[in-house]
Amino acid sequence: MQCSWSEIAMNCFPFNIYYGEKKGDAKGLQMQSLSGLSNNSTYGGSDVRRTGSELNSLDASDNSSDSLRRNAFPNLSQRPSNLRVFTVSELKSATKNFGRSVMLGEGGFGCVYKGLIKSVDDPAKKIEIAVKQLGKRGIQGHKEWVTEVNVLGIVEHPNLVKLVGYCADDDERGIQRLLVYEYMPNRSLEHHLSPRSETPLPWSRRLKIAQDAARGLTYLHEEMDFQIIFRDFKSSNILLDEQWNAKLSDFGLARLGPSDGLTHVSTAVVGTMGYAAPEYIQTGRLTSKIDVWSYGVFLYELITGRRPLDRNRPKGEQQLLEWIRPYLSDVKKFQIILDPRLERKHLLKSAQKLAIVANRCLVRNPKNRPKMSEVLEMVDRIVESSVSTNQQPPLNSVASADDSQDTEINNKKRIMDPKPDCNWFRLWRPKLLRTC
């Protein structure tokens, strides 16, 4: 049985831990209202979100320099955008009046529906879309809607889900806020890692997804004239297109990175339990390195096939990072954490290398974590090595197999990075992140 977020906050976190916007001293910190735990869906995962702030409007609880910086965020009025503006009636027609038969899922934002609209380039042609309808979440939902429009309206990358357009209209049902995305037929990574998935993702596809996701984060962090911090990187926010290309989605919690001269942005703590970087939870100080931490957690998801936080498992296995800790010392133990649904014949060394990358992302001191461009380089090398290995014919001689086994045994104490800084495990032991 799952606990609600309110129960988690009351029962699992010590009362001397505060979450909220910085006011300058401890007295100014207050617990803010908590949103509910959303259902799993194709276009939104089970997330725990606290009151955050949008990219383009001032928040009185932020410091003045942060407010000035955020006010300068490049929005739709300052940058060209190809977004289409839809009416409610158009989207009703496209989605069979938001019928349950075309509902793709329900997340923290609201319900998501599959639809068909006419192509702008060829009116005789129809294209598939996913329409996300804002639920009754009040001003916070509206903030996330605004952020989605402003972020995806000005960024474009093969590994970011494409926002086709939006709708801001009123009808007999009240205020309507909708987002229209390209349709991703292969659903989310979370879906395919789930035990309920009929066909598990092969290792080669998992590596490709890791590569695509790293490309998307690298673009957001380093390849524009401003930096965007995702803040909610997780497997349910990685969608897969028809060719199984991975694209980051759900930018409602995204935030502009610190401006020149500043080391971080002070914000309310938002994100998803199990993915959030401990220093961010403890301080509210936001840097791009919190996305790097989340990426490290995600890599262990790919390796193990397990969720970062799963209360349906035995007590000692509920927190992924805590569970894997004893198995990282040698090859025989490491094999225990590999997803049992995977064909293990040719993936062990590749999985070990990916675990090294994950450990570097999960270094205790965020300053010592690599940038996403550095992470991408490491993942690229693993993918290239994996492809070249798989293309080689298998070794048939007994002597070669024995030599390989001897090498594996001799190296079993050197599987992980010789300097992995495994102090990151300590951050998952305190009461701050314990589960119900």
From TrEMBL:
**Organism domain of life:** Eukaryota
Q: Which reaction does it catalyse?
A: L-seryl-[protein] + ATP = O-phospho-L-seryl-[protein] + ADP + H(+); L-threonyl-[protein] + ATP = O-phospho-L-threonyl-[protein] + ADP + H(+)
- The segments labelled Disordered in the record are 40-72, 386-409
Q: Which organism is it from?
A: Medicago truncatula (Barrel medic)
Specify residue ranges for compositional bias: Polar residues.
386-399
Can you tell me which residues bind ATP?
132
GO MF annotation: an example: protein serine/threonine kinase activity
Where is it localised?
Cell membrane
Q: Where is the composition biased (Low complexity)?
A: 55-72
The alphabetized UniProt keywords are: ATP-binding, Cell membrane, Kinase, Membrane, Nucleotide-binding, Phosphoprotein, Plant defense, Transferase
Membrane protein topology class: Peripheral membrane protein
Entry's SUPFAM superfamilies? Answer: Protein kinase-like (PK-like)
* Subunit structure of this chain's protein: Interacts with FLS2.
GO BP annotation list: defense response; pattern recognition receptor signaling pathway; regulation of salicylic acid biosynthetic process
InterPro entries reported in the protein's UniProt record? Kinase-like_dom_sf, Plant_Ser_Thr_Prot_Kinase, Prot_kinase_dom, Protein_kinase_ATP_BS
Q: What family is it from? A: Belongs to the protein kinase superfamily. Ser/Thr protein kinase family.
- Domain (Protein kinase): give its ranges: 98-383
Q: What is its EC number?
A: 2.7.11.1
User: What is one term from the GO cellular component aspect held by the record?
Assistant: plasma membrane
**Gene responsible for this protein:** 11430514
Identify this protein by name.
non-specific serine/threonine protein kinase
Keyword Kinase part of the UniProt annotation:
yes
